[in-house]
Design a protein that fits this description.
176 residues, alpha+beta, five-stranded mixed beta sheet, EfeO_Cupredoxin, copper, metal ion binding, Cupredoxin, 3 helices, single chain, metal-binding, Immunoglobulin-like
């Protein structure tokens, strides 16, 4: 973990859990960050290992229009997420992930898949099935295929409560 991430994590952990933000739907498609793509369009595969609470690699370089197949592996002891988005998207999504923990959908190292189906009203559930995100229990792996749209501030992050604040995020850098 870099010293900057360590300082940010220490400051963030001093906040109460209720301060972890509110906002609008934090995941899903957003033209500024790109769109899901077909595996056959991928020009390369990047393996991302998730640990408690960091990623390897910490930075991923991409080009505008590039399609990348991410193979995501959870090597940690806790449930972790690989989510592509802007910092604002992650902040908003953290409120949703907090709700998942509060309702027992995520409990340490387990996901209660039956609870994910729970009706939250207005046709919403706690399903975690957006194309820019993978949520995995320890020992699980998954994949995400993504076409990057262009220059924007983009990160990959785990938005399980406290994980982002502990430094579990990385940068997506656009190369020329």
């Amino acid at each position: 973990m870099t010293i900057t991430k360590f300082i940010a994590a220490a400051a963030a952990l001093s906040l109460s859990a209720t301060a972890f933000g509110a906002g609008t739907h934090g995941h899903g498609q957003n033209a500024a960050i790109g769109e899901p793509a077909a595996a056959s369009d991928a020009t390369r595969t990047v393996t991302v290992a998730m640990y408690d609470n960091y990623y390897e690699p910490e930075t991923i370089d991409v080009q505008k229009g590039e399609v990348v197949r991410f193979v995501v592996e959870n090597h940690g002891q806790l449930v972790h997420e690989f989510n592509l988005g802007t910092p604002d998207m992650h902040e908003a999504h953290q409120a949703e992930m907090t709700m998942m923990v509060e309702h027992g959908v995520i409990n340490g190292g387990r996901i209660n898949h039956e609870m994910m189906e729970m009706d939250m009203g207005d046709g919403h559930s706690m399903k975690h099935d957006d194309p820019n995100s993978v949520l995995l229990e320890p020992g699980q792996s998954g994949e995400l295929i993504w076409r990057f749209s262009g220059d924007t501030t983009l990160e990959f992050a785990c938005n399980v409560p406290g994980h982002y604040q502990a430094g579990m995020y990385g940068d997506v850098r656009f190369q020329q």
